[in-house]
Amino acid sequence: MSRWLLIALLGLGPSVSAYAQRATTVASTTTTATIGSADGVPIAYTSTGTGTPAIVFIHGGYADQSFWKEQIEPLSDRFQVVTLDLAGHGSSGKRHREWTMDMYGEDVRSVVRALDLESVILVGNSLGGPVALAAAKKLPAIVRGVIAVDTFQDVQREWKVEARQAYVQALTDDFPATCEVMVKQLLLEGTDPDLYSWVEDRMCGFDPEVAPRVVEGFLEYDLAAEFAEAEVPIRAILGETIPLNLEGNRELRPGFDAVVMEGCGHYPMLERPEEFNQHLVAYIEELGR
Fold first, then answer.
1. pTM for this entry
2. Which residues are CB-neighbours of 212 under 8 A, at least 6 positions away?
3. Which of 102, 66, 117 is nearest to 222 (CA)?
4. pLDDT one-digit tens code per residue, 125-174
5. What's the CATH number where 132 sits?
């Protein structure tokens, strides 16, 4: 099974551990609610703080909105910070009509519309990167840019059909065992043990019936075409799970830019949050001008 294919898709969420229990104080202007997506599935979301542009965080596969807990307090004193659970994840409904990036884009659009946001920057980790592109396409004149987090390293890279089929089959046949392999490939050696356990607990607790369908939807998405055709600027903050092909990406999008956080794995926002937030705010300020 391809290591590259495994690490292209996934995210994580909270579980009971010392890492997950770390206290976070958020601004008093917090709203938690649900809104129906295009097919009626309830989508849970949280809005904290005020300010323009609003920053909408989109988690990766097998994740939830609390994945971004290290970003909420530091950013909500300057921006309206919005997090959400994509369908099938977290507190949102579990049964989408279809599990495509386009459908997940509808989840994001529903939340943006519910909050009546007029200026938005989308931040997407892993699977959340393609979802951000799909959502941006549905929100013209509202989305000002997309910031990808450890995704879009090499958008022209093609996956062999056999590798795709093997990956989906492994998820279908033995999700727990496949999940353990994923965790080892997503995080670098020397990762905080509490964080490692947090990732493993959350990922391996995901609905095993939904897990293969989430990946199938990703594999059907024409990332290179959508990356090239997006009508908003795209930036990236990356770990070291996959080498960056900057020249190849710029062949499709000359203005693309990225920063690599050396020594980080698939979740730089959790591994070194202060440094990550500095890079993130720099890109937000650039795109918000």
1. 0.91
2. 168, 171, 172
3. 102
4. 999 999 999 999 999 999 999 999 999 999 999 888 999 999 999 999 99
5. 3.40.50.1820
